[in-house]
DNA sequence: ATCTAAATGTAATGATGTTGCATTTATGTT
DNA sequence: AACATAAATGCAACATCATTACATTTAGAT
């Protein structure tokens, strides 16, 4: 099973003409295993044996290739999430809602919630929209219910 | 006129039980004079005679009091804009669209464009929404038209 | 005028992100 | 299997943004 998954990531790297290195495979494996975005600080502490600079370079190249996208959370911290849309080299289409839980700080990509088109004031030419929400995620809202009882 | 305006800012500080200091009045004067948000780097370079730490403290207290709100732009840089909604101590209501021009980098608060209410997946309890758009602002879209001709 | 909490200044430190350059490694070719 | 080389990594230094602790000054009240 683990092999199958790893093979999938190796294919992904191949597709983008990126060398299959341990660091890259580990980053992919971590990000694909979660249903939330991963913050840069988290990545850095988990992958503490990989050089900081290397990590930044991996994140940057993955973003350029359309493998992941960057989201800033409520505190301005960079978070990274895998792209499920048909993103590619310099062409991102991740215009879904990003939900930032105020309790656990996790950022969720709610891919099904797209932006409603809006008519902007005269002169503004929008190229992309992003939608943010903050509040309690399912886990944390359930937890706070329990505490309230 | 300048006196009238300054008096207005002094009243504002009074209302929030903040001492009327030169630094605070200058920050208010700068932010109220523009129709776009002001980035932290800009503030720092313009107010280069005020200590960096003081500037951060001014921004933080203004945000706490509901006088200004913080917006991160596309690069994760902190920008500050005056609150036009009825924001107060620990109660912000700035759920309008923030437009980030990719050319001039300015952030515009489009107060009239509020969030459409969305139904989130089960369990998510949203407390606040924010809407971002990026593209060309009126000035820059006009400029690019001229160049194209 | 005096007093004091609030505001500012200063120095040190932390967190995040980038750049330049030396070294190593993945991978295609022989 | 050995080689060649571009790509990837590691390391050191630096840049920027932000916070903390503590000393000093000042606005505003008495
Ligand atoms: Mn996303
Ligand atoms: Mn705003
Ligand atoms: Zn949560
Ligand atoms: Zn512009």
Brief descriptors of the model:
DNA-binding; binds manganese (II) ion; 26% strand; 5 helices; three-stranded mixed sheet; 38% helix; Arc Repressor Mutant, subunit A; 6 strands; binds zinc ion; homodimer; globular
Give a nutshell description of this structure.
Chain A starts with a helix and ends with a helix. The first copy, chain A, has one domain (2-148): Arc Repressor Mutant, subunit A.
Can you describe what's shown?
The structure is a homodimer of 149-residue chains. With 149 residues, chain A is α+β, with helices and mostly antiparallel strands. Chain A has one domain (2-148): Winged helix-like DNA-binding domain superfamily/Winged helix DNA-binding domain (Arc Repressor Mutant, subunit A). Chain A contains five helices and six strands. Chain A has helices at residues 2-15, 22-32, 40-46, 52-65, 138-148, and strands spanning 38-39, 68-72, 78-82, 96-101, 107-114, 125-136. The first copy, chain A, has a three-stranded antiparallel sheet. A three-stranded mixed sheet of chain A has the order 5-4-6. In chain A, helix 1 packs across helix 2. Chain A is globular and about 45 Å long. Residues 101, 103-104, 106, 137, 139-140 of chain A line the site of one zinc ion (ZN).
* Beta-strand content of chain A: 25-35%
What proportion of the residues of chain A is helical, as a percent range? 25-40%
Overall shape of chain A: globular
- CATH second-level architecture of chain A: Orthogonal Bundle
User: What pattern of helices and strands is seen along the backbone of chain A?
Assistant: HHEHHEEEEEH
pLDDT under 50 segments of chain A (min length 5)? Answer: none
Helical/strand content category of chain A = alpha+beta
What's the mean pLDDT score of chain A?
91
Q: Count the domains of chain A.
A: 1
Kindly identify the CATH topology of chain A. Answer: Arc Repressor Mutant, subunit A
The neighbouring-strand order within the major sheet of chain A is 1-3-2
Report the radius of gyration of chain A as a whole number of Å: 17 Å
Number of helices in the DSSP assignment of chain A:
5
Which ligands appear in the coordinates? manganese (II) ion, zinc ion
Give the chain pair forming the largest contact, with residue counts: A-B, 34 and 34 residues
Distance between the termini of chain A: 42 Å
